[in-house]
């Protein structure tokens, strides 16, 4: 990982950590309280498929990932994500996802700065995603579509996350 990547990642994580008390205080002042139905910690396992241009042709490959997020309030959570895509694409995505609950339903939007790492290079990326979380007793399933913008290309990542709150 380059010095630039480490600096950006550490900066984003530090900003999220320093802002968390301010967000919680503002939420309590607005009368929403700080309690979470299942706790503020969210761990998700992702299984999906990635479609990207690779050496001039469109390639698809399986993707597997994991993330941890902390819910600052009902609306905003942030954390870290690692996702591996195999096959011809063979790359890692590391990022800091900011997830926003959109309204009272299960819709969630994701904005994530990050990096794509391959054996030969590393590129900055930005992910935009949309998913719908179905909550069950003790876990949640979230079908989602993410779009990564990396090095002038668009990469599509479609899959489902299995999430746990504590």
UniProtKB/TrEMBL annotation:
Leader peptide range in chain numbering: 1-26
Q: Which UniProt keywords apply?
A: Signal
Question: What protein name applies here?
Answer: Outer membrane protein beta-barrel domain-containing protein
Q: Which organism is it from?
A: Shimia gijangensis
